[in-house]
Structures are given as structure tokens and as C-alpha cells.
Design a protein that fits this description.
One of its GO terms (cellular component) is troponin complex. The chain is mostly helical and 182 residues long. Helices cover 73% and strands 0% of the residues. Among the domains are: 50 residues; 51 residues. The mean pLDDT is 79.
Length: 182
């Protein structure tokens, strides 16, 4: 039993040691990646953005401003063009995905409204001019005449239930019931 506990403790300690070693490696890798990104950023800025040298005269300063405005306009035009291209490709993607759904036969179901429609009208809508069957279900039902049974007549003749109870109460009522049974 104690050996099993020692093995478990050793396995747990080994697992935790490996976990901490992996975390240390991950931290160093993240730091390396951050440093590489920073170096890459610095190289890009050095290449594309030369250091700014401000001229001494007013005329040279105005020329620099005009150059900067021209660069800003060109970058703005490029940004606008890329946005338009992106919108166009997104629209094409939506159209293609819709065509794909149509080809597969999976349509988006439109919201349905309740419509009151008789069975005849529904068959006419589905079958068109081929519709010849009359779906008037009430016409096909049998008509049943209600027969008056003796019990119903007795119940109608009895009238008020209190009178019936008073008639059957006492010895006279029992005698009447006994005679009726024979």
C-alpha cells in the first residue's frame, strides 16, 4: 500500500515538474516571438519611413508639406480601392454560397403566414385544372336520426326529481316499486 502511494507521489511530482518545464519553455518562446516582432517592426519602419529632416527655410517646409499631402492622398486612394475590392469579393462570396445552397436544395425557409384555405381551394392550388375531386367532407357524412328511447321518455315524464323522491319514500313508495318490479 505504501509503495503504491510512493509511486503516485512520484508520478504526480514528475507531472508537475514536466508541466513547470513546459511553462518555462512557453514563456521563453513568447518572449523570443515578441522580440522578433519588435525587430521586424523596426526594420519595416526604417525601410518605409525615413527619418524626418525639417528644412530651415519656409519654402522647403511648404514643399515637404505638399509631398506629405500627396503621399496621404495616394495612401487614401489605395485604402479606398482595397475596401471596394473587399466589398466586391464579399458580395461574390455571398452569391456563390447562395448558388451552392440552391444546387444542394437547401433553401432558407421564408417566414410562413397562416392562411385560411378550404381543402378544395388547397387541391385546386396544388393540382391546378386537374382538380376534379370534391373534398366537401360534410356532404359525405351519414345523417343519423335520433331515436327516442324509453328511458329518455321516462326522464322527460318524471319532471321534478323532488316529487319523484317523495313518491318513492315511505312504505307506499316501496310497495309501488315492488309492484312495478313484478
Amino acid at each position: 500500500f505504501f509503495q503504491l502511494q510512493k509511486k503516485r507521489r512520484a508520478a504526480t511530482a514528475r507531472r508537475q515538474h514536466l508541466k513547470s518545464a513546459m511553462l518555462q519553455l512557453a514563456v521563453t518562446e513568447i518572449e523570443k516571438e515578441a522580440a522578433a516582432k519588435e525587430v521586424e517592426k523596426q526594420n519595416y519602419l526604417a525601410e518605409h519611413c525615413p527619418p524626418l529632416s525639417l528644412p530651415g527655410s519656409m519654402q522647403e517646409l511648404q514643399e515637404l508639406c505638399k509631398k506629405l499631402h500627396a503621399k496621404i492622398e495616394s495612401v487614401d486612394e489605395e485604402r479606398y480601392d482595397t475596401e471596394v475590392k473587399l466589398q466586391k469579393t464579399n458580395k461574390e462570396l455571398e452569391d456563390l454560397s447562395q448558388k451552392l445552397f440552391d444546387l444542394r436544395g437547401k433553401f432558407k425557409r421564408p417566414p410562413l403566414r397562416r392562411v385560411r384555405m378550404s381543402a378544395d381551394a388547397m387541391l385546386r392550388a396544388l393540382l391546378g385544372s386537374k382538380h376534379k375531386v370534391c373534398m366537401d367532407l360534410r356532404a359525405n357524412l351519414k345523417q343519423v336520426k335520433k331515436e327516442d328511447t324509453e328511458k329518455e321518455k321516462d326522464l322527460r315524464d318524471v319532471g321534478d326529481w323532488r316529487k319523484n323522491i317523495e313518491e318513492k319514500s315511505g312504505m307506499e313508495g316501496r310497495k309501488k316499486m315492488f309492484e312495478a318490479g313484478e
